[in-house]
């Protein structure tokens, strides 16, 4: 993570997953309000991928594990360093005797240079963080396929992954400039926010505010990774992008920036909730919206009218076809709070 790309990569992951969680949570919440007697809001660690044909697969967990593994490989590759140092300097530091790290340089450059290989300790910390999220994703897949594990272990693994992340970044600050320490400390605060709301969500899965709290601080981690990356590793030499890391006055600006991140994310989540309500619910009386809902649910129209639906949301011998006299377009919605794929109001 000692580069701009190293901060943008994890930041993009957190923003991506947080935004997706907000989208599915808004659908679940609106459904529970429209059908309060039948659909009770229930939170979950992962969210279904309703836009894909294999929506019943744990695609989020697979994606989480794959992306974290790619980031882990990137950290391992960039963390391995090879340097050539004078032999006298190494003898002073008593490093020549460590043959597993130091190798004689046999090329034509100089006989007084030795080849030293090392691995950056910061990268080792980042690899540990990614490994924790990979482990959590594996447990989520196991839970999805019915492996006999303790109840709510997927929440416990998520809390574990965030706790390891917070612990690592809390002790990632030794020897850094004051402003560098401060921005990483604010990142730790956002991670602790995720941990707190995950714990609350375990105890009260029916409270949507706890889910939105987890989403808020997850996206906040992502946006703050972006902020820290551009502050510490500006992409240009333009003075407008340069920060004086030793100036304590900049801490006041950074504190205000952190608060603006929080307020902008909250505004975005409210806008997302409004968008989902208007686009996916208030417009479902229109013909085009009904077709979109059916396409999302994996049902294709094959020579049927727009008023024909399958009650169980599947196509097969046991499917029950509902005629146009039995249901109307506005009676159809996708129920993410229940297991069946299309729920009639």
Nutshell version of this structure?
This protein is mainly alpha-helical. About 55% of the residues lie in helices and about 5% in strands. It is built from nine helices and seven strands; from the N terminus they run ααβαββααααααββββ.
Report on the structure:
With 345 residues, the protein is mainly α. Helix content is 56%, strand content 7%. A three-stranded antiparallel sheet has the order 1-3-2. A two-stranded antiparallel ribbon has the order 4-5. β2 and β3 (113-119) form a beta hairpin. α1 packs across α8 (250-282). It starts with a helix and ends with a strand.
What is the H-and-E element order?
HHEHEEHHHHHHEEEE
Q: What is the oligomeric state here?
A: single chain
Number of helices: 9
Q: Name the poorly predicted regions.
A: 98-110, 293-334, 339-345
Quickly give the structural class. Answer: mainly alpha
Helix content: 55-70%
CA radius of gyration is: 26 Å
Q: In this structure, how is the largest beta sheet organized? A: 3 strands, antiparallel
Average pLDDT, rounded to a whole number, is 78
Strand order of the largest sheet: 1-3-2
Shape: globular
Q: Whole-Å distance between the termini?
A: 50 Å
How many β-strands, per DSSP?
Answer: 7
Strand content: 5-15%
């Amino acid at each position: 993570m000692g580069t701009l790309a190293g901060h943008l990569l994890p930041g993009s992951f957190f923003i991506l997953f947080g935004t997706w969680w907000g989208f599915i949570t808004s659908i679940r919440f609106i459904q529970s309000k429209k059908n309060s007697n039948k659909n009770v809001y229930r939170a979950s660690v992962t969210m279904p991928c309703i836009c894909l044909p294999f929506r019943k697969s744990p695609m989020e967990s697979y994606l989480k594990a794959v992306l974290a593994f790619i980031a882990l490989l990137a950290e391992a590759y960039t963390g391995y360093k090879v340097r050539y140092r004078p032999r006298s300097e190494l003898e002073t530091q008593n490093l020549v005797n460590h043959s597993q790290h130091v190798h004689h340089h046999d090329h034509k450059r100089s006989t007084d240079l030795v080849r030293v290989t090392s691995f950056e300790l910061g990268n080792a910390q980042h690899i540990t963080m990614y490994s924790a999220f990979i482990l959590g994703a594996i447990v989520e897949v196991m839970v999805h396929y019915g492996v006999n594990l303790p109840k709510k272990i997927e929440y416990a693994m998520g809390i574990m992954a965030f706790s390891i992340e917070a612990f690592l970044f809390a002790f990632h600050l030794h020897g850094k400039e004051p402003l560098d320490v401060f921005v990483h400390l604010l990142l730790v605060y956002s991670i602790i926010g995720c941990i707190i709301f995950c714990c609350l969500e375990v105890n009260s899965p029916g409270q949507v505010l706890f889910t939105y709290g987890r989403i808020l601080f997850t996206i906040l981690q992502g946006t703050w990774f972006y902020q820290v990356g551009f502050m510490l590793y500006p992409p240009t030499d333009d003075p407008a992008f340069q920060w004086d890391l030793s100036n304590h006055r900049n801490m006041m600006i950074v504190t205000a920036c952190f608060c603006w991140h929080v307020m902008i994310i909250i505004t975005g989540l409210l806008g997302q909730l409004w968008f989902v309500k208007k686009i996916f619910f208030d417009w479902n009386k229109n013909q085009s919206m009904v077709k979109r809902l059916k396409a999302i649910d994996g049902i294709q129209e094959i020579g049927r009218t727009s008023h024909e639906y399958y009650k169980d949301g599947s196509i097969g011998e046991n499917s029950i076809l509902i005629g146009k006299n039995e249901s109307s377009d506005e009676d159809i919605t996708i129920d993410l709070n229940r297991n069946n794929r299309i729920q009639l109001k």
